[in-house]
Amino acid sequence: MKYLLCGVAAVAVLTGCNKTTEPGEEPLGEISLRAGDPAEADAVITAMSLSNSGDGIVQYGSKSVDGAKATFSDVTITGDEDAAVTASSLEFEGLDMVDDKASFSRMTLNGISIADPEDDTGSVKVAKIEVLNPTPELAAWLSSSFGAGEPAPFPSADMLGFASWSISDVSAAFSDEDGEGTFSIANFEVRDLVDQKAKKAVLSGLSFDFMADEGGEEVPVKMSLDSVSLANLDLGILEVVQQNMGNEDELASAVMSKMYENPMEPGYDKITLNNFSLEAAGATFKMPSMDASVERNSDGKPVKFVTKPFSMTLDADPDGGEAGAGLAQGLSMVGYESVEIKGASVADYDPESDIVEMDAKDNYFELVDGAKFSFGAKLGGYAAYSKAAASSLDFDALAEGAEPDPMAFQNAISELDFYDFELSIKDNSLMNRIFNATAAQSGQDPEQMRQQVAQMAQMAPMMAQGSGVDMAMVSELSQAVSAFISDPGTLTIKLNPEEPLSAETLAAMEDPSMLTKDYLGFSATHKK
């Protein structure tokens, strides 16, 4: 019985891992550019090595200076790389000197093309790259990057900021021995990055179309995304990346440690996704939308996580490729041509007591025309569990193919306390599909097989005799499961103990007789 309860613990932990949720977004303000100082424009241009074409790594056909604005046309940027970067124009606004270093309020690179003249396997075109109101440190680094020498040190994460950084209309084409394809992005923008937090990040119009060469056979792969946006994005991880950039062995471990420093913090307030699609060799996955958000208390700590109802589909084209043929065969065995999955979740969190609560009516996964799985729980020590799980993992060893230490997960689970748990399965043809498929493989009658399995479930009390397990609990569970198999409806299993159950105590318990039906608050029911 203790292994069953530890399994329940694992299920409850996994269902609590969906840390996404729901408030309103802060409206983005209008961007007002710094005016700059026309009297310092020439000094800024000189500091950027742009006084004359070729003073630095930038060559241009013409230059125009108007007050604190400057425009360079027919631009070519050279460097150590073989690829040539050309642009129709490089524009600056708000030129001035800040602490004797070149600065600006707007930098725009238009009509960009990147190609290697000695390699025709790929090319990239970008309509525009623009940064508005960068911090003096970021502006100084960007300005120094146009010179022939080493640029200034990249600003530390706490000095990195801007009102907007955007890339528009990216298109790329590539071809090599693995295949050929195209890639495009309509727009990517990060707004109001201050103190390692951005008010909003948006990616829209993503498209990837690739024809892979698999041993002479063409395999199509297509991916598209209308948009994904994140509000109040925490980019504190940038500091960790900078500090460990020179040590690949430490980078992964440092990043994971930062992520689990506050395991209940998802790193954003809201995420919205629209029309994601992935097609590969005849298999197609689609998610029309996802909307998730986080509610916070007055201290800014997460207290509620909400994922609104969503759906996703998986389709198979048996003539579209190996993946589609294999998937179609698997689905047909259980009577499906395609599958649709729906879900939603709501979790309340008390940061003071470290308790997560989920109601079964609000947390579910549903296989349409199959079954609906609803789950609820009240768990204590969830943040402590997450920290313990992260600190016990050897990411370097895992990257080399090592298996996770099962004792590490067990030790992490021991941090949890269980106040209650509920799992409900509402059948809507899934049981029929399973028995039909299994019987077809063995040549049996589906109804006969169903009754055989139901009878085996009824025999559980007999098999458990002498084990020390409370027979009242075993009998109730076996009767509910047997009835669910014989006449599918809704199977519900609940735990509502008199006092919270420690996962550590359950794992160490050697006498199962202590785990009685009344002590655990156990119930198992079947309703038609």
Brief overview, please?
The chain contains 15 helices and 23 strands. It has 528 residues and is of the alpha+beta class. The strands form two sheets. The chain has a 21-stranded antiparallel beta sheet that branches. A two-stranded antiparallel sheet has the order 5-6.
Q: Key terms for this structure?
A:
528 residues, alpha+beta, two-stranded antiparallel ribbon, 15 helices, disordered N terminus
Mean pLDDT: 87
Distance linking N and C termini: 27 Å
Number of strands: 23
Structural class computed from helices and strand pairing: alpha+beta
Please give the share of residues in helix: 25-40%
Biggest beta sheet attributes: 21 strands, antiparallel
Strand % is 35-45%
Regions with little confidence, pLDDT below 50 for 5+ residues: 1-22
Number of helices: 15
As a whole number of angstroms, the C-alpha radius of gyration is: 30 Å
| Inertia-based shape | elongated
